[in-house]
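[Help] Beginner question about ligand-bound structures

Sorry if this is basic. My supervisor gave me a protein sequence and a SMILES string for pyridoxal-5'-phosphate and asked me to "get the holo structure". I don't really know what that means in practice or what format the answer should be in. Inputs are pasted below exactly as I got them.
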Amino acid sequence: MDQILTQIEELVRKYYDDLFKNQPEEVGKIFLSEPSYDSREAIGAIRTILGGWISQGPNVKKFESSFSKYIGGTIGVAVNSGSSANLLAIHALKEVYGLRDGDEVIVPAATFSTVAMPLIQVGLVPVYVDVKRDSLNMAPSQIDGAISDKSRVLMPVHTLGYPAEMPALVEIAKRHKLIVFEDCCEAHGSTINGKKVGSFGEIASFSYFVAHNMTTGEGGMIVTNNEKLEETCRSLREFGRINQKNVSESRYYNDENLKDYDRRYVFDRIGYNLRMTDITAAFGIEQLAKLDEMNNQRRANADFLIKILSSEAKEFLELPREQEGYVHTYYTFPMVLKEGAPFSRREFSEHLEANNIETRPLFAGCLPDQPAFQGVSGRVVGDLEVSRYLRDNLIFIGVHPGLKNKHLEYVAGTILNFIKERAK
Ligand SMILES: Cc1ncc(COP(=O)(O)O)c(C=O)c1O
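Answer (accepted):
No worries, everyone starts somewhere. Holo just means with the ligand present. The predicted complex, written as structure tokens, is below.
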């Protein structure tokens, strides 16, 4: 059996070696993202399948521990998506901190749908504040004006890999006694003065969707140092099961209805099933080992584009930049059309797409403007001028680690040609 396993692994390695040796010379399509994995992830997954334990098990435990340590937390709770991580985290915060239906959570207006949707699903109210145009992140200056007697949670999002202003946000949260919940679904490994995002607040969520800086296809993680939140998240993740920590020592449960009942089938809250499989976790363990290297490549790719574009494109496009001490991990490469640009976002996007370069807007744009959020609970602070400007004028393209200089030169050339043509 061991010999067969060795042969399988050798063949998988050979398959990927050949695949990478035979990459096409031509530039081809520039996708927003391409999962970056090789024989290590494939062998991890195959070993798990052949090993026979494919549901949540030892790999999930190992991945939870290594990922939370990487972020700078002590506890990881793995789930099946970033959306599930947000749902679980907010449900657990509500239970552990005794939040009531109708209590408010402050979120940036310009972000992804399942930042706000889980809040509504558990009976809380999203309060939308504006973002800053240079960072695309929640504007600390907006928070004081968003506070009401129902404000309980501050939920910054680290947009497209750029850290939100956590030192200022944590200080504001302390002043208003808000719990900080960081959405890091787009920012694995981003740092502020060497401290990773996801380690500033009470709890943090991550996504391993296929487009993200590290992936397991689908998947997510909660990171926290709070054992009460951990216990609640683990229970909610698994059908609302009673705490299973000491089940081997005390297998039986007793109360007025259940006598000597197997603890594995005692449920003490209304839960979900949001678990990660051990195959997924095996993949994630290998991806984590490469995350810093992949992030460095994204940063190098973004710098390459910025260098070429900044002189000739800066009249019409705002490009990403880093504030001192802030490390961007460039989930994607955003460009914002300046006022007076001689082309629309649609024209720019259609030009790039016609030249095989994928583009997207800033996800949901401005959340309260989306059809799903009409007529549901939510409060808007101010005019959301910047979020709406970004909704209409931001476009992003890929800088994933699979892109080489020849691809980036092609992308930059395509952008510059378009601008030159339009600026005539
Ligand atoms: C900020 C943010 N939060 C949450 C999610 C949800 O993650 P998932 O796609 O893994 O459900 C996303 C999606 O990518 C996201 O961008």
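A couple of things worth pointing out: The pocket of pyridoxal-5'-phosphate is lined by residues 81-83, 86, 111-112, 114-115, 157, 183, 185-186, 207, 209, 220 (CB under 6 Å). The domain at 39-284 is CATH 3.40.640.10 (Aspartate Aminotransferase; domain 2). Feel free to follow up in the thread.
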